[in-house]
Amino acid sequence: MNLNILTYGIFLLIVVYIIAVVGKICYKNGNIYVLELLHGHKELCLRINRILLVGYYLVNIGYAAMTLLNWETITTLNQLIETIAIKSATIISILCILHYLNIFLLTKYVQKIIND
User: Which UniProt keywords apply (predicted)?
Assistant: First the structure.
């Protein structure tokens, strides 16, 4: 049995699940956050939140697919588990960084608009 194919399948299942769940949570709760920053602009907040969600999905699913290109040949079960753990942890770290970067930039942008 080719362990690379099995590893790709397990990795993609884990990563797509994580990306979908985190995206749903951020979309649901992010709309409240954006609406708090932009009082009285509900329609604009919904559009901003949708754009953020689409960008989130494109970046993360694209990155997950691109990581499949750089994998070495997997020959043992230990190597399979290690590869999935490292690659999944990398995706999760990127999710965290992008989330905090979005919050920081959005907050700074809105504060700049309010202060001007």
Answer: Membrane, Transmembrane, Transmembrane helix
